[in-house]
Design goal:
449 residues, alpha/beta, D-Maltodextrin-Binding Protein, domain 2, four-stranded mixed beta sheet, 12% strand
């Protein structure tokens, strides 16, 4: 209990510091980032177009979130600009078309690791903004955004300037992954609380296996399993929890590392849970997986994003629940946090005033617009869960379990190999050897390496 008390005090301290820093923040968000003061940038009445797959929802954020309800109008006056939003999922094609047509001189391009970022950066379509902006810009971004830009670093430079957002959580990660667990079910089964295991350093693969075995059963006697230990098991997320990554930058090259022993161990552990022990619900249907957990028929819901906790679990879960990180793998000396996707904003190579565009984005989305209390309240309902949520956002180092996902997920061979390994139809070593040249070739082509 002493450890729990210390951690709770630490959380209160961190929250207090964050709140105080917000209360005494500078009146000029631009100078805080090393930019010129508000009123120094003038677009001459031109239109800035913000392009994103979320642009149909961004205006709603500025219309309903109280701290920013007048922000668009303020920006248009302060920057002498007209702001428009272009919604499209056809990124980067739309971006390249606008660039070739000369229409992108006043564009802000929202991009994600799975939606356009690497194509635009590797294709010389955008500017390396760390060559243009002062160092203070990146040093004073919210920590989570700093981690994002570090993860997106290419050729030793920062290309993004921070994300645009349509939910009131700017400065935090929308796609951070957690294990959500059914506290009511575990208590009924006589199993210790996962949060306590996490605090005591005992939340490991071995413990997850043990709990999954104990909680998987046929509860109505019809011969079919209807209560599962785990739903939504993903081997690539387990790999991160074992200190492994599918790709890494080594000596200036992005290389496939899914055949490293730590990654192979994650694949074999997923196969053990899914096929050998049959304690993971054997379906890839997201609706079935989610509903099984929400209806109280699963002990642990692996790989749940922050946004889905807020959207589904918080709103619909009747049983008491909590969150913990992915269990620690045998090769890991700590809990590793990961996300399924990271995003930022890019500025086209033909931009007339790239610094002004960066300043406009920084004014529209400010760290103080979302308090830590608001973020916690919209995602969780207990101090334990709040501790895990905030710890994740403070400790996350920019890791994404499949940072180049869009370059191999479209290949049915790669997707099927992962599924064949988990199903026991193919060995992990053989499977990774099969897809290694496929993924490495795509990476070589992308980065001309």
């Amino acid at each position: 209990m002493k450890k729990t008390y210390k951690l709770s005090v630490a959380l209160v301290f961190v929250m207090s510091v964050l709140l105080l820093s917000s209360a005494f923040a500078s009146a000029d968000v631009l100078t805080d980032l090393g930019l010129k003061p508000l009123g120094s940038y003038d677009f001459g009445g031109e239109t800035v177009t913000i392009i994103s797959w979320t642009s149909d929802r961004i205006p709603g954020y500025f219309e309903t979130h109280v701290p920013v309800m007048e922000r668009i109008q303020e920006a248009e006056e302060l920057f002498n600009v007209k702001i428009e939003f272009l919604h499209t999922r056809d990124i980067p094609v739309v971006n390249y078309n606008r660039l070739l047509a000369g229409e992108s001189t006043h564009d802000l391009w929202h991009a994600q690791n799975k939606i356009g970022y690497w194509e635009l950066v590797a294709g010389d379509a955008v500017l390396p903004m760390s060559d243009i902006l002062p160092a203070e810009y990146y040093e004073n971004l919210p920590p989570s955004l700093q981690a994002t830009e570090e993860a997106f670093k290419y050729d030793g430079k920062y290309w993004g300037i921070g994300t645009v957002e349509w939910l009131p959580l700017y400065g935090y990660q929308n796609d951070m992954l957690f294990v959500v667990y059914n506290k009511t079910l575990l208590e009924r089964e006589g199993i210790e609380d996962l949060y306590e295991l996490y605090l005591d350093g005992e939340w490991t693969w071995d413990k997850a296996r043990e709990i999954a075995i104990k909680t998987t059963r046929d509860t109505d006697g019809d011969g079919e399993t209807d209560q599962w230990g785990i739903v939504d098991l993903r081997s690539w997320d387990l790999a991160v929890s074992n200190g492994a990554k599918l790709t890494q930058e080594i000596d200036g090259r992005v290389v496939f590392t899914g055949d490293e022993p730590e990654y192979i161990a994650a694949l074999e552990f997923a196969k053990e849970l899914w096929t050998d022990l049959q304690v993971a619900m054997p379906t890839y249907g997201s609706g079935d997986l989610r509903n099984t957990f929400l209806n109280g028929k699963a002990a642990m819901y692996f790989s749940v994003t922050s946004s889905n906790i807020a959207k589904y679990v918080l709103a619909e879960m009747q049983d008491e629940w909590g969150i913990v990180p992915l269990p620690k793998g045998p090769n890991a000396d700590q809990h590793y946090w990961t996300v399924q996707a990271i995003s930022t904003t890019l500025i086209p190579v033909n931009a007339k005033d790239p610094e002004a565009l960066a300043a406009l984005r920084a004014f529209l989305w400010q760290e103080d617009d979302v308090t830590v209390n608001d973020f916690i309240a919209s995602h969780v309902r207990s101090q334990d869960a709040a501790d895990v949520l905030i710890t994740a956002n403070m400790e996350w180092d920019g890791t994404a379990s499949r940072v180049f996902e869009n370059f191999f997920e479209k290949d049915d061979t790669v997707k099927q190999v992962f599924r064949d390994i988990v199903a026991g139809n193919k060995g992990a070593v053989a499977g990774m050897a099969e897809i290694k040249p496929i993924i490495q070739t795509k990476l070589n082509e992308l980065f001309n390496q």
